[in-house]
TrEMBL record, chain A:
It comes from Catenuloplanes nepalensis. Residues 3-83, 132-216 form the Cysteine-rich domain. The lineage of its organism: Bacteria, Bacillati, Actinomycetota, Actinomycetes, Micromonosporales. It comes from the Bacteria. This is L-lactate dehydrogenase complex protein LldE. InterPro entries: Cys_rich_dom.
Automatic annotation (TrEMBL), chain B:
Residues 391-467 form the Lactate utilization protein B C-terminal domain. Keywords: 4Fe-4S, Electron transport, Iron, Iron-sulfur, Metal-binding, Repeat, Transport. The keyword Transport applies. Transmembrane segments: none annotated. It comes from Catenuloplanes nepalensis. Residues 313-380 form the 4Fe-4S ferredoxin-type domain. This is L-lactate dehydrogenase complex protein LldF. InterPro entries: 4Fe4S_Fe-S-bd, 4Fe4S_Fe_S_CS, FTHF_cligase-like_sf, Helical_ferredxn, LUD_dom, LutB/LldF, LutB_C, NagB/RpiA_transferase-like. Residues 73-283 form the LUD domain.
Amino acid sequence: MRIALFITCVNDLMYPDTGKAVVSILERLGHTVDFPAAQTCCGQMHANSGYRAEAMPMVRGFVDTFRDYDAVVAPSGSCVAMVRDSYPRLALGDSDLESGVAKVAPRTYELAELLVDVLGVTDLGAVFPHTVTYHPTCHGLRMLRLGDKPLALLRAVRGLELRELSGAEECCGFGGTFALKNSGVSSAMLADKCGAVDDTGAEYVVAADNSCLTHIGGGLSRRATSTAKPIHYAEILASTGSTS
Amino acid sequence: MNGTGNIVALKPFPDAARLELSDAQLRANLRRATHTIRDKRLRVVGEVDDWEELRRAGAAIKDDVLARLPELLEQFEAAATRAGAVVHWARDAAEACEIVTRLVLQTAAREVVKVKSMATQEIGLNEALEAVGIEATETDLAELIVQLAGDTPSHILVPAIHYNRSQIRDIFLSKMPGVLAGLTDDPPALAEAARKHLRAKFLSATVGVSGANFAIAETGTLVVVESEGNGRMCLTLPETLISVVGIEKILPSFSELEVFLQLLPRSSTGERMNPYTSMWTGVTPGDGPRTTHIVLIDNGRTAVLEDEVGRQALRCIRCSACLNVCPVYERVGGHAYGSVYPGPIGAILSPQMTGGGANKTLPYASSLCGACFDACPVRIDIPEVLVHLRQKGPKPAAERAAFRALSWIMRDRRRYAAALRAARRGSAPLRGFGRLRRLPWPASAWTDSRDVPLPPKQTFREWWTKR
């Protein structure tokens, strides 16, 4: 199986460790992973902010880069949702692009989907002796319907204690440019999310999207009462016991 | 044609929201109320095995109606006229108010009782009636609270959601004639006070004004769905009944109504069935009103219909499920949206109906979390329409320039890799700080409440090429 890695722009620049974790997980499972260097960004920020024309070159770029792989995996529910949910809509009217998207989009997976649905594994032999709480990010939850898949993976991790997050399914308030354009509302949403994370007393807040984790982490580090650290669940699954 | 009336925001959303965000009591009231209805809705929706099929059926019926609206409206008009109703057409809010005002003035009445209705709120009917000396009394408990307070509704279904019960007691004590000073904030006591106040109005009024939840094209029948029974009083006791109905409320026949009578109560009040469903067709000698008028209003609806993506907003049955699950609505309440249609549905409906002004900021009043789409009983893809409206609307020049530049960089692997390298190098001197706490405008919108992490020493692609 030819698996291609799509490392989103946020991960590439800010969170390379998440990408390294995905590589290590897949190689540990015996798969060869390819990182096509032609990849850039999925274009979500442009499209969602209302800049469709500006997003289209990235849509085309993604399709050209990944069209010949059996599977594409990305450690981001949000970017995968862009490809699977929005690309078909954006491609409408351009028959070449439509057929390219029809080929690539169904084979583009968020990490938990690839592991659980395609490769059929939930126990990766990871060890992470810490308390964690899981925030299901909106796009993973409502566009990809990831459901319990990331939780199933986390539950199989040795030493990990999962603590329930109240109001888990509520948005953290990031929403791309929403965080800037409606900063006040976004911050109010964040304050409630941070409060819920604090209430768990967990050492780590875990999610499938580094953009949401940047928001939550940025809020937590501002609060005197908060101690939880943000971490992508891929890094937990790659962990073999030493504290990250 | 674009709509007018109480759907035109006076202030951009971020400004209006800032004001509401500073009200801690409001946020507490909203949180409590929306979570209560939200949980109730989830419970009763969970009881229905074929809920997803029902949602799809509801969406399909509404789409069919929108596709052949002129034909169905004419069919409705003919049937209603045959049954003895008088049908009027209004292009906008002003015209609708003028028609209703004239109809009331033609009677001897200078007082009307009202059934809770979004359409009459939308056209600003109470104010128009007041201007010619006609007193309109809202008979829905929550509408009455808002009316007594001299306030405007802030929720489609629960217009007084922004008040808690002790605030409501204070409003009754200061504004409701004849209320005893010992009134407590016990809900039954408050309801009893309102009942006494309204009973006199029901018995003396000769004109009733309503909206309609559905209008059946085949028979010319109007349908009102409600919880308190006050609506049924207004619909049956007065001699004259005037109903203001949006043109999108049409259903082809009674068999489609079955789908919506399942979808609506569960989505709006979290009830299996609403307590009162009233239907009336024209006039019946010796039973109910002797004269019935139906005012069909456009007020921007045909403008919405013209947009292929945006028209799904007209499927809306005003259940308000999207408001109750929306994290933005929960923090700021309905007034921030500057329209009688607040929340996610308002953010797509109001700008389309009015075609601009301060409403243009509404499509940005969402984090696109998608909770509204999941809750919508007629599957309006609100996030899709929000993005579509952002795409269609005007944008700040600086923002446009920034997105263009980003697009130019991101469409080419070399430029992109170079930009990542530059960002990593450029921030290197700051790395000792770990994270940034204060950035200049416009990034200050972020750092007002959030820290910014700094990029590590190596990008992923640098690591990959060296491994």
